[in-house]
Design brief:
CATH class of the largest domain: Alpha Beta
Oligomer: single chain
Distance between the termini: 80 Å
Strand content: 15-25%
Radius of gyration: 40 Å
Helix content: 40-55%
Number of strands: 11
């Protein structure tokens, strides 16, 4: 508000000078009229006083003109600043509108880069996002691209003062200020933590060369904070969307895909297998005596066993294979481009790994497997799961901890379609 007070004081001074100038002009006019009416020494004195007043009025007019020009220049400067602020606000509103359409971190980085190129064209920038474990910040985007702009691909949160304090921090190695461990000691940087909904989602870094880095970074701190605030909200929304998407596709206990996703994936993979003429196998798995384990050691122990079994299976199979929790202690695996014999070998390998968990949990942990394959044992979606389930039941009847294969189809003939269970077994002996 100091600039406004100064403007008011200048305007009051100008008003005073204008009134004095008007009074001086009136006095000069009166003196000149009196000099015309008088004669002799009195007329000469009146004329001299009038001339003196005219000189004073001239000086005062010059001073008023100078101050008026200064005031006009100040008005132009303020208008230019207001126009610049208006354009910045428009850019920020446009960025916020674009961020509402961002679907991932790459989209957010692209929008941030485009906006920064307009608002802060002389500054380098980088966007870092926390990974899923929240123990590292990964570089998502940096600008401008060039040999002289090579930000670190990852940052450790414990080395960043901005993240430690939860406030913007300026690293200026030229001034000997406190710098983060990841600063290269050559350029000045402004780092802003992006906080939304009480959680830190990432870090915005802006950099500038030169020995006056601190002063220049202080000038853009307001714009930088506006950029960080807008981006942090977008990152929070993306993380929430990812969380909801994961909850809709994943089982919360084991982290495996749920039954709904498995059914869609199986339908899709079967269509691809039919088009390409490749086999597809399904493994139906049931943990042996799982109800007894729950009754003996409690559900916490049962949950731990389920999580470890899921981890063993995911770690042993291909990324393209779909491992899902079918229901209760039953799991199902979809193996695209895998024949019946290969599926049997994989099932034996999984059975052995699950059996090895017994030493970890100090109890017996085994599983029975049923294997079916399209086209070797089944015709398609209508019977492959049912036939794998029937083979699983046969493995249970044969003594558990076994792998059983569905019967192969006779050449040129289709086996009757078994009746699938309406609901999975929640506990099996």
């Amino acid at each position: 508000m100091s600039w406004l007070r100064n403007r008011l004081l200048v305007e009051k001074d100008l008003d005073k000078f204008r009134r004095l100038l008007w009074l001086g002009q009136c006095g000069t006019a009166v003196l000149l009229l009196l000099s015309l009416m008088l004669s002799g020494i009195a007329a000469t004195a009146m004329t001299a006083v009038g001339a003196t007043l005219m000189l004073a009025q001239f000086a005062m007019s010059r001073m008023i003109a100078h101050r008026s020009l200064s005031q006009i220049a100040e008005h132009k400067r303020l208008f230019s600043e207001a126009e610049s602020s208006r354009l910045q606000i428009e850019q920020l509103f446009a960025m916020t509108d674009m961020l509402q359409s961002a679907e991932n971190h790459e989209d957010v980085g692209a929008i941030l880069q485009a906006t920064s190129a307009h608002l802060l064209p002389q500054y380098r920038g980088a966007l870092y996002i926390f990974n899923n474990s929240n123990d590292r910040l990964d570089l998502v985007r940096y600008w401008p691209h060039g040999d002289d702009c090579n930000p670190s691909p990852a940052l450790v949160p414990g080395n960043c003062w901005a993240l430690k304090r939860g406030k913007p921090h300026i690293n200026d190695p030229h001034k000997g200020s406190l710098c983060c461990a990841h600063n290269n000691g050559e350029i000045s940087t402004l780092e802003l933590p992006m906080i939304a909904r009480g959680k830190v989602h990432g870090l915005l870094m802006l950099a500038i060369d030169g020995t006056d880095g601190t002063a220049r970074l202080q000038q853009i701190k307001r714009i930088a904070r506006a950029l960080a605030d807008s981006v942090s909200l977008a990152l929070a929304n993306i993380r929430l969307q990812e969380k909801l998407r994961t909850q809709s596709l994943r089982d919360p206990l084991t982290g495996l895909y749920n039954r709904r996703y498995m059914e869609d994936a199986l339908d899709r993979y079967l269509s691809l297998a039919e088009r390409d003429g490749t086999p597809l196998s399904v493994l139906m798995i049931d943990l042996d005596q799982f109800k007894k384990l729950n009754d003996t050691y409690g559900h916490a122990k049962g949950d731990a066993v389920l999580r470890d079994v899921a981890a063993q299976m995911v770690g042993a199979l291909r990324p393209a294979d779909v491992v899902a929790r079918f229901g209760g202690e039953e799991l199902l695996v979809v193996l695209p481009n895998c024949g019946l014999e290969d599926a049997r070998l994989k099932a034996e390998m999984l059975r052995s790994r699950i059996e090895g968990l017994g030493s970890v949990h100090n109890t017996t942990v085994t599983a029975s497997f049923g294997v079916a394959c399209v086209p070797e044992t089944s015709t398609g979606l209508g019977d492959v799961v049912a036939m794998a389930d029937a083979a699983l039941y046969a493995a249970k009847q044969a003594g558990r901890n076994k792998v059983m294969l569905s019967a192969r189809r006779l050449p040129g003939k289709d086996l009757p379609t078994p009746v699938a269970r309406k609901a999975p077994r929640l506990a099996a002996g």
